[in-house]
Structures are given as structure tokens and as C-alpha cells.
């Protein structure tokens, strides 16, 4: 059974299920056995839904045995980042302030996956309220990189990336506000897609920065990511920013069309600062893509150098507003009645005990940049520069179809290496943040197929596409994987 878990892709699972090579119940049970063995050292999960998962898997088996046609995701064991709501399941957002909270409804993406009869194994660990680049900011436990347990898996969706990399889930959901899917995907050697802003409903997502957040999939392959994305995308009346999906070749890539895509290389992304192993990996990836006879062109994204500064004004500002709802009165109370004498006590004691260092830092910064006298100097100016960053992408996409770039400046760093230096930690997202500010889709693809056995640290290449052209970057990713 363990061999099955390590070799499966979504299509492989679906074919094996229909051919009666195994049952959905057997595979789900196998995943829980492997999680019990492996997750002690990785720490990918915060909670498991074993009873619900096995029940869902059994229902799929009954349909298959009856000859009823089932969806390609039916019975597929998925992990879900613990900021996406599943009814009656814990929803902590990695924070002690929500330790006692369970969701009262399903997020829209969960509803869609339930309709496809996917199986949810459990909720994965993350940086508290998705604030971080290493998953060291979790209020509960560390997550370790399956390739080297002394290193981080990336963040903030480190638990989801680690679960897929360690074969503790066939695929997973994460969220990406400034690189929180792509960066851990690169560190853990899996595929991670940040969809176009508005391509996937955010209803039922515990918000961090509402103009940047997007839910997206992790998979072992670009095809797996495309399958999950195809199920969760589309408009939703509960999210006014969501957009209806258009017909495209997402699930059946036209490789003759893919071969004609023009690929842009932004000179600002290769101007220095890459670690030797990432530089070598990117050179190898570029050589492989060039061998496919794709047309390459150097482009410029001149305002990229301001992206990090802009992001760390806009994100804390929006986070300070979104996190104001966690006041110790709504959702759950973590201080006892004996500890409080007034409403002020509830606010201060609950928040003081509930929020970790990173949320406090960002709430304070966000409150400051939105305060009287500083709003125009910081927040308003950051929004103007954000518009210039979007314009850079618009100009670039007049010349090219896809942009090729590194996902991260380094491979996975050691646990504790950057915790005392927030700026150094923030810089690990320097290549992923611009896509969030512009709202364009981007995917991280492993430079090559990595094996947990050889202990080589993974490197990710990033493909950035036009708005709502996930089919281009995932199609090119599948074309690249064929090599």
C-alpha cells in the first residue's frame, strides 16, 4: 500500500479505482497509517478527519461498485490548509486565538470538492494567520521539510506542501498572498499554483489581505494541479471579486499551441542575489525549455524593486483591518471568566494570549500606515506604485505570453536561521510577491524530479501568465515535465 501512495497521481488513482486495483477506502486508510508513522517527524497536520474521510471514501466505493460514473477527483485524498473552512472541522488559522473554534459552514472551494466527492484527510499546519515564509510562526508546532528535517518547508502553506511532498496527501489546498503556495512548493519539490486574483472564490477563507489572497492547489505534477484548479475555479455569489471560468484547454493542453508560446526572461530577476544552487537550477531549466524550441525574449519589469516595500505596507494595512474581528468575544474565548473584570480585560488578555509575535508585528505596522497623517504618505503611495507594477506586467505581456523566473532566491534554509531577522525572512518572497500585487497567475514547478532518498534540496522555477491564462502556465509546465 505504501508503494501505491508514493507512486500515485490523481489520474493514476482514478484509473486504479475504476480498474478495481484498490478501493478508495483502502487508499484513505493507507494514508492515515502513513500519516501516523511519518507526521511525527514532519508536523504537516494540525488535525485529522479520519472518520469523515473513511465514510466519504466508502461512499465512492459503493458508486464505483454500482457502475455509477464518478468524477476524476472522487475518492482522492486531499489535505486542506487550516485557513479554509470545512464545516464542523477545527479552523485555527495556526493561531491560539482560534484554538477552540470549529467552522460553521463550508468554504465554496470545499463545497465544490465535496460535489466531486474528494476525501479530506485533515487540516494542515501554517504560519499563524498565513503570516510567514517558513511555517515557523505556527502557534502549535514546527513543520519540517521532508527533504531535510533540519530545514523549513517554506510558508505560509508549509504544512500542505510538506504533506504532498511526504506522500501524506495526494494533493492539497493552500493560500497565496505573497508567495505562500509557490515558495513552499519550491522548497518541497512539488507543484504549487497561485491562480489569477478572482479565479477562485475566497468565501470561507479566513482573510489575511483581501486584495491579495488566493486559494490554490498543490500537486505532484502540473496535471494534478490543473485537475484540482479546474474543480475549484469559477464565480461565486458570495465573493463579488470572483469571475466565471472561460472555456480553455486547461485539462487537455494543446502542445502544438504551447510550443508557440513566447517566453519572457525579466532581467531584474536575474540581476544577482540568487544562491549558486538556484542559479544552476535556473540555467538548467532554461536550457531544457530552449531545447523545446520555444521563443525566448528578454523583458523588463522595472518596478519590481519596489514590490517588497509596497507589499509590506498593503498587506499589514489589510491584515490589521481583517484581524480586528478576533476580539475575544466572537468566534471563541481563550481566557476564563475569572480572569476578566471588564470588556477592556477581554480585549487585552485574549489578544495578548492569542496572537503570536508576527501577527502583532504586522497588526501594529498596518495600524500605523493607516493612521491619520500617515495614510497618504504610506498606504496611498503604495497603492500607486502597485499600479505601476501591474502596468509593467501589462507591457511585458504585449511582447510575451509567459514569464520565466526563479520561485525563490535560495533553496530551503535551516530552521531558526532567519527567525531573528524579519527582513531576511521577507526577502525569501521577493520573486513571488509581484504576481500577487498584479493579480496575475503563477506556478512553481520543480526544476527536475526530486527524490526524498537522495537528500538533494529541491529548486523551483516560476512561470507567470496573463490574467486568467492558467492554461498557458500549467500547459507549459506539463510540457516541461515531459522532459
TrEMBL record:
Active site: 81 (charge relay system), 156 (charge relay system), 180 (acyl-ester intermediate)
EC numbers on record: 6.3.5.7
Catalytic activity: L-glutamyl-tRNA(Gln) + L-glutamine + ATP + H2O = L-glutaminyl-tRNA(Gln) + L-glutamate + ADP + phosphate + H(+)
Gene3D superfamilies: Amidase signature (AS) domain
Transferase is among the record's keywords: yes
GO molecular function: ATP binding; glutaminyl-tRNA synthase (glutamine-hydrolyzing) activity; transferase activity
Single Gene Ontology BP annotation: translation
Protein's UniProt keywords contain Lipid biosynthesis: no
SUPFAM superfamilies: Amidase signature (AS) enzymes (SSF75304)
One Pfam family in the UniProt entry: Amidase
Alphabetically ordered keywords of this record: ATP-binding, Ligase, Nucleotide-binding, Protein biosynthesis, Transferase
UniProt enzyme class: ligase
Domain Amidase: 26-474
Coiled coil regions, renumbered to chain: none
A Gene Ontology term for the protein's cellular component: glutamyl-tRNA(Gln) amidotransferase complex
Subunit note: Heterotrimer of A, B and C subunits.
Role description: Allows the formation of correctly charged Gln-tRNA(Gln) through the transamidation of misacylated Glu-tRNA(Gln) in organisms which lack glutaminyl-tRNA synthetase. The reaction takes place in the presence of glutamine and ATP through an activated gamma-phospho-Glu-tRNA(Gln).
HAMAP family xref list: GatA (MF_00120)
Family under the similarity heading: Belongs to the amidase family. GatA subfamily.
Name the UniProt record assigns to this protein: Glutamyl-tRNA(Gln) amidotransferase subunit A
Name of the gene this protein is made from: gatA
